[in-house]
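Progress against Task 2.4 (sequence-to-structure conversion) is shown through the following example record, which the project officer requested during the mid-term review.
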Amino acid sequence: MTKTVKRVLWVGVAFVVLLVALVAIAPTLISSAAVRKQLVSLAEDHLDAKLEIADLHVSWFGGLRIEGLRLGNPPGFSDGPFVACQEATGGIALWPLLHGVVDLQTVRLEKPDLRLERARDGRWNWEAIVKGGTPAGSGKAPMELPKLKAKIEARDARGELRDDLLGTKTEASGITADVFADLTAAEPRYEFSATVPSVAANQTMGPLLEFVIPFAAVRDSGAELAGTLHIEGHGTVEGRTVDRMLASLETRGRFSIQNGKISGSPLASKLLGLLREPNVFELESMDAPFTIRGGAVETSDIALVGKRSELRFSGKTYLDGRLDLHAVVKAGKAGGGAGESLVQRIASGAELKFGIGGTLASPSITPESPSLDIDAKDVLQKGAGEALKLLEKKKKGGG
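Structure tokens generated for the chain above:
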């Protein structure tokens, strides 16, 4: 064996030893305070908010553990954090990390806090938190995202939805959520599912529910929404701009309310007024399955079972606020009293059908083919008294 060959072999062995040593100490290096600060600094290069990590531990066998995670809000929003979590555990693939790709494998967040906010100028904090983020319709170039893959599980989470533009705030706890994000492709893709087991419904939720249940789109102090709300959903979204993300959003979910009441929304006020119903619709139960796709919320059978009557809605509510819905109003048990509603007085089990157009702020209602043997236009135009006269006339064979 020549000296040259021996030298090459020794160099090869030394390189292998050095590589093994580097791999062995990589978790220790990454866990060090200096590297932790460097990682935070690199993350903040992409964020318009302050990121804090109290401690970071990485090991080949123990995976990843982050303590004291706190990501603040961007400028122009409240002082509270966008997200905060006392502890996050999971796995991280170290080899892709050496090539500039952060591959987080099932990171579990225990009791995290998440705050979604909209400022008075219409900006959302989740849009503004990434430097170069592009609010819908801004016309700016797509945001530059880091190379990241992550599967995140959140358990017993707390969420807050605050809208300074409308002056509303909604809080929920006990949330379960799973998110998978792949930011390495040309079109970043996200998959998600979430469940909010039980939260007290109130009028501040109007903007949250209005696209699924326009009947409950309460927006002002004179409106009311009450009950116990359950939310669940899952879906996908992709894209680098908000416009693209909204266009690609596809979600299936369900809202339900038990023992509630609704009043004051534009659609509720108009529909209840036409039916001579009290201006408060008292709910025994509401079940609202929905699908979001193609820039619209599709509903096939939303059922609002009230104490006096039952309402069913189907159709589409577009994300720009346009309505294309059909409603069926079914009478409950008739009592015949002078103070009862039009549907209640005409017949037990009778149905009136309507088409609903216009917008969330200004809905329009037109009669469709009713199952009554009187013309629906007479019902709407002449009121309960005249409608009853018409019905009596027809029963007597008078036309």
